[in-house]
Write a structure and sequence with these properties.
The complex is a heterodimer of chains A (about 80) and B (about 550). Chain A is α+β, with helices and mostly antiparallel strands and about 80 residues long. In chain A, about 25% of the residues lie in helices and about 25% in strands. Chain B contains 19 helices and 5 strands. In chain B, about 65% of the residues lie in helices and about 5% in strands. The chains are: A alpha+beta (about 80), B mainly alpha (about 550). Chains A and B meet through strand 1, helix 1 and helix 2 of A and helix 11, helix 18, helix 19 and strand 5 of B.
Chain lengths: ~80, ~550
């Protein structure tokens, strides 16, 4: 993984938003990130519809359950190719 | 795990279900069924099965094809099996309706066996759906709270249909099964499994999930929720089994049946108490039409419970049972179904239509697919007519009942029209939403002082400039640099960004960090965007950026 290394993952806290707003904002951020390292998305519920869309777009992601929500870490697709 | 997709055949189920709902109401109003004639008349049975199989069962199975993969976090949604299941149910229901018309003498008696054959086809269709859904549930053990009600409901669906087929055989070929108690005992067991076991358990499970999701209330229901589940499913199962034993001739003490039935009733009351608690604990203060209009449906459920208790104590009349069934089917189950469709249909349509372009282009909001202001009166008319209709049935004012019936038929027609427009009309703010400024304004309107006019740009003397055109031309990715530059801004300082395209997605990201923007094309396809710190930071959810 290349990148500047100076900038760690931005974190997007989408708790407390009514569906499907968290999904819209998460994907907006993911697309905006382009080839940045990663973005962490925090949601109240396990964002299954988001995961489906991330998988479809071939963005690797990892979802972990946290005490008060779910943390989905999304990396960018095609990073190694660039 | 791949997350959950949109179920392909759910909308077709909804369309078929709503068509049957309208047909059933039309049949009621045009006449030939209860309350105009007796509860056990074949025409009443014809209408009741249009309602229970055509409308409610197809509605609920369609919803579960989407709902179960989502609540159980199992990725796969039903494929072609959902369509095959629907076709079996449609053909089977058609045959059943022919069977009822035969019983009524409106069709020649050589189609008499249509009733059990139709029932069997419906059962095959349902069995296909239940098999698919159970597999998903099985893989998701231990089941989440709301899925437990759904699993129990599916069991009762199969039981109710099995009982229904037995009844159909008794009616059409009595010499095979000479059961004199079919009209009383058989019907009671069929209704208990179908109306309470299948419909109400599904309604409870699905409502727990949808109402907590759309009012932003806690989904974990704690000990009260567990009590609801145990009392409702346990009470119902014991009541049903004891009743079967009694019908088969076993010496079952009546008091024992009464205790089991009372436990079930207590479970329903606790459910309503818990839902009231859920509404109070919600974080979304303003109710949308779907969560707002679930309240009269829940009230109809509460009224049904009161009426049922009253009938148990005071003894029942045909008109009182009719009023109870009407309130339960139209007020509670259909009312909840219609109100939730008003959210579920736009939500799924939105996902289907815009899911793959989210973040890549500006899309309308879910709520732009409907017009709550336009449709609210129709929901009020619907519930008002149902309540009035139940009273008229109770009082046996049949002429007035027809007006009430017409009222909820028209209301349903208008709600169906609204749902049709969700699928086939234009989103209300489609044109407006195409402007990049609306990207962030869609949900959190940017205060007027955050929208930058030329004056404000001039007034913002302190700008840091970042030119990322060379990076972009070299095929590089400037996002990290942009975010670093944003982090490095001093309080009050703005950022002047030069790029080779209009970086629309960035507007949303920076709006969440409290930056307004203005952009202009500066020739050669290049763009200059000026981000200035605005007031929207506190209104937007926190974006904790890079470590600073």
């Amino acid at each position: 993984m290349s990148g500047t290394g100076l900038h760690s993952s931005p974190q997007l806290d989408l708790r407390g938003l009514d569906p499907p707003e968290p999904m819209r904002r998460a994907l907006e951020a993911v697309e905006a990130l382009g080839l940045a390292e990663a973005v962490e998305i925090i949601t109240d519920r396990e964002p299954l519809l988001l995961h489906h869309e991330l998988a479809r777009r071939e963005h690797p992601y990892l979802c972990e359950k946290e005490p008060d929500g779910f943390r989905t870490t999304v990396r960018c697709r095609g990073k190694d190719a660039s | 795990m791949m997350g959950a997709a949109v179920s392909r055949w759910t909308m077709l189920h909804f369309g078929a279900a709503l068509t049957f709902f309208l047909l059933a109401q039309l049949a009621l109003v045009v006449g030939g069924a209860f309350p105009v004639i007796s509860l056990s008349a074949p025409m009443t049975l014809a209408v009741v099965h249009l309602l229970t199989i055509g409308w409610l069962t197809i509605l609920m199975l369609g919803a579960l094809h989407q709902f179960i993969p989502v609540i159980t976090a199992q990725g796969r949604v039903a494929g072609t099996s959902a369509l095959v299941s629907l076709i079996f149910m449609l053909v089977g229901l058609g045959a059943m309706e022919a069977g009822f018309l035969t019983l009524d003498g409106r069709l020649p008696t050589d189609v008499l066996t249509a009733l059990p054959i139709g029932g069997t086809l419906v059962l095959v269709g349902v069995a296909i759906a239940v098999t698919t859904l159970s597999q998903t549930l099985w893989q998701a053990r231990p089941l989440p709270f709301s899925a437990r009600f759904v699993a129990a409901g599916l069991v009762f669906l199969v039981v109710a249909l099995g009982m229904g087929i037995v009844l159909g055989l008794v009616f059409s070929v009595p010499k095979w099964i000479p059961w004199t108690g079919a009209f009383t005992d058989g019907l009671r067991l069929h209704l208990l499994a179908g109306l309470i076991g299948w419909f109400t358990l599904i309604a409870i499970g699905v409502s727990y999930r949808l109402l907590s999701m759309f009012t932003l209330a806690p989904e974990e229901r704690g000990p009260l929720g567990t009590a609801v589940f145990i009392l409702v499913t346990g009470g119902l199962a014991v009541t049903w089994l004891l009743d079967v034993a009694a019908v088969l001739g076993a010496p079952v003490p009546r008091a024992l049946v009464a205790v089991a039935a009372a436990a079930m009733g207590l479970g329903f009351v606790l459910y309503l108490v818990d839902i009231a608690r859920l509404y109070r604990a919600r974080r979304r203060r303003k109710l949308e039409l779907n969560t707002g209009m679930a309240i009269p449906a829940l009230a109809a459920f509460a009224l049904s419970i009161l009426l049922a208790v009253y009938l148990c104590v005071q003894g029942s009349t045909e008109s009182a049972i009719g009023a109870l069934g009407y309130l339960f089917l139209f007020g509670w189950l259909s009312g909840l179904g219609l109100s939730q469709l008003y959210k579920v249909v736009p939500f799924l349509t939105w996902l289907e239509r815009y899911g793959s372009v989210l973040g890549k282009q500006v899309v309308p909001r879910v709520q732009d697919l409907v017009d709550e202001h336009r449709d609210r009166p129709w929901f009020i008319l619907y519930f008002g007519s149902v309540l009035a209709g139940a009273c008229f049935i109770l009082l046996e004012w049949r002429a007035l009942w027809l007006i009430a019936g017409l009222g909820h038929l028209v209301a349903t027609l208008m709600i169906v029209r609204a749902l049709w427009l969700v699928r086939h009309g234009m989103p209300r703010h489609a044109v407006k939403a195409a402007s990049p400024f609306d990207l962030s304004a869609l949900r959190h309107p940017i205060p007027s002082d955050a929208i930058i006019t030329e004056d404000k740009v001039m007034a913002t003397t302190d700008l840091s400039t970042l030119d990322v055109r060379d990076i972009l031309k070299a095929g590089g990715e400037p996002f990290s640099q942009i975010m670093q530059a944003v982090d490095a801004l001093t309080p009050g300082q703005g950022l002047r960004l030069l790029a080779t395209f209009k970086p629309v997605p960035l507007f949303g990201v920076l709006a969440q960090r409290g930056f307004g923007h203005t952009e202009r094309e500066i020739g050669g396809g290049d763009w200059e965007v000026i981000f200035t710190p605005g007031q929207s930071a506190s209104a937007a959810p926190v974006v904790a950026g890079a470590k600073q």
